[in-house]
Specification:
Elements: E1 2-3, E2 10-19, E3 22-31, E4 39-44, H1 54-62, E5 66-71, H2 95-108, E6 113-119, H3 122-132, E7 141-145, H4 155-171, E8 176-177, H5 183-189, E9 211-212, H6 213-227, E10 236-241, H7 263-269, E11 277-282, H8 294-311
Parallel strand pairs: 4-5, 4-6, 6-7, 7-10, 10-11
Antiparallel strand pairs: 1-2, 2-3, 3-5, 8-9
Helix pairs in contact: 3-6, 4-6
Length: 315
């Protein structure tokens, strides 16, 4: 481990096998609690994102849980000059670095209890991983923060665009398609606009990045896998806002709603995860719940650590 760009954290680069764009790495970030603990959390970020949420890590540390985060391949700390940012053809491409991180956390650092925490696209990758690796019993609990269970927009527009995008994504996966996240979400969280958080806009651009057909095909395929029904064996906590917003210009409602995903779809699709699922809707929550206003995120942490007290108790 070497010192990280975030003071007090450290990281290690994880070389991965080459893919269709060449060399690949992932990055595991770590910070340990003041007292030795058998509990750890592994955080998976979302699309157009990387780990910068220091306050989230500090909450875990205060509660006696060692904190780890992955900057997945082609994202944030792991982005190499020859790569297309945040691109994949299948979300299972991320499983090798999660496997490596889990091995380090459990075997090298000797943790016996592990929570997997996924936000947005990370919240879609995490349950698919927990399902695929369920027989290994390597994940003890799963927390999904506004998971990307469905595409935003009307049912009709999704269905009409789906077959065409899937065909394009299979044949010419790097083709740019007219879709993406509004810059208003970035403005709602960054301290230079309407938010209170600092992050590197080279790695998380306010205006977003081009959406590629191959990536969108990978997302739709993963969402279909989810809706076919998963059999996650560990307990799952899903949280999202009570309300979504889709606006073309700035309004303060963006500071208290999910401006990226459809929270009704998230609430609907928790039924496909497994047999031990808790869903909590957070009034006033933004898309990344832990970046919401201070009273709202305090509520998120209260609910999270109350739940963990039952499902990931201290050993």
């Amino acid at each position: 481990m070497t010192p990280d760009i975030l003071d007090g954290f450290e990281h290690v680069t994880l070389p991965m096998p080459d893919d269709y764009e060449g060399a690949v790495v992932a990055t595991l970030v770590r910070r340990r609690a003041p007292q030795r603990t058998s509990r750890a959390v592994l955080y998976l970020h979302g699309y157009i994102d990387y780990f910068f949420q220091r306050a989230l890590a500090e909450q875990y540390l205060v509660h006696g849980i060692d904190f780890y985060a992955l900057d997945l391949r082609k994202c944030g700390r792991s982005l190499l000059p020859h790569q297309t940012p945040h691109f994949c053809k299948d979300l299972r491409e991320y499983f090798p670095e999660i496997d490596t991180a889990v091995s380090i956390i459990r075997n090298d650092d000797e943790h016996s209890a592990l929570l997997l925490d996924g936000h947005s696209t990370g919240g879609l990758i995490a349950p698919l991983y927990a399902h695929a690796r369920r027989e290994r019993h390597s994940i003890d609990a799963l927390f999904l923060n506004s998971p990307f269970f469905d595409l935003p927009g009307s049912w009709l527009s999704r269905e009409l665009s789906g077959p065409a995008v899937s065909a394009i994504g299979a044949l010419t996966p790097f083709t740019v398609v007219p879709a993406g996240v509004s810059r208003l979400y970035g403005e709602s969280i960054h301290k230079d606009y309407h938010g209170e958080w600092a992050f590197d806009t080279r790695w998380k651009p306010i205006e977003g990045i081009p959406v590629r057909a191959g990536w969108l095909r990978a997302i739709r395929t993963a969402q279909r896998r989810l809706r076919a029904g998963l059999a996650i064996l560990c307990p799952v906590l899903v949280m999202c806002s009570t309300e979504s917003s889709t606006l073309a210009s700035w309004d303060d409602v963006l500071l208290r709603t999910d401006a990226v995903l459809d929270v009704d779809a998230i609430s609907r699709d928790v039924q496909y995860l497994g047999n031990s699922v808790t869903r909590i809707n957070i009034e006033g929550g933004m898309h990344d719940l832990v970046l919401s206003a201070a009273p709202v995120r305090a509520h998120v942490y209260d609910e999270l650590f109350r739940w963990l007290g039952a499902y990931l108790p201290a050993g």
